Amino acid sequence: KKGPVTIPVVVHVVYRIAAENISQAQVQSQIAALNRDYAAANEDKGDTPACWRGLVTNIGVQFKLANKDPEGKVTDGITRTKTKAASFSSHDEVKFTAKGGADAWPTDQYLNLWVCSLGEGLLGYAQFPGGPAATDGVVILNTAFGTTGTATAPYNLGRTAVHEVGHWLNLNHIWGDTSDCSGTDHVDDTPDQQLPNYGKPAFPHVTCQNGPNGDMFMNYMDYVDDDAMVMFTAGQSARMHATLTGPRKKIGT
Ligand code: ARG
Ligand code: ZN
Ligand code: CA
Question: What's the complex ipTM?
Answer without folding.
Answer: 0.94
